[in-house]
Amino acid sequence: MTALMIVLYFGFVLLIAYNKPFMSRLITPGLSVGILLGALVIVCTWLLTWVYVRWANTHYDSAVDKLNR
Fold this sequence. Notes:
Blueprint: H1 2-18, H2 20-23, E1 26-28, E2 31-32, H3 33-68
């Protein structure tokens, strides 16, 4: 998951730095590819956080309970 987040964030930043014409391409009036991808990065961050929390709650919490007993 960490690697996926790094790829998402740095990929987005690299697109901004090196492919400005692509990022400034309009999808609809007032919505560019850059704004859409930026919003998708945020949504993906939320989803990955949710997946990690669900996984941690099922795996780590049960392991902590076993250690506490």
